[in-house]
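ok so i was messing around last nite and threw this chain in just to see what happens. nothing serious, just curious
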Amino acid sequence: MGDDYPTPDGTGVRDYIHVVDVADGHRVALDHLDDERGLRVFNLGTGSGASVLELMAEFASAVGAPIPYRVEARRPGDVPALIADAGRVERAWGWRTTRDLAAMCADAWHFQRLHPTGYSASPTV
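result:
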């Protein structure tokens, strides 16, 4: 994860987005396929960042227990912060995220508890 970035706690800051917000953004895109011709590029994101350590703390809160981790050297080429500017998609389509980091972590933990080994290749009926 690296802990020597020029960020408040030294870890990388990223724009973590809930998977349902991503799906909703793509659903809204389908509603606007015929708005205009040509390629349009939109960033989907919250517009705010959280550090790796903030993410770990939020997951620990969702889980209800500390989560062990180990700090490793930073990966070559990683930038200190990477945050989406979703202003264009909000202006064009009125889309924005509705779920925060706490909801993302709680829902991810809920999914993990229900599917500890993920989805099986051939679901049982």
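not much to say yet. The chain has four helices and three strands.
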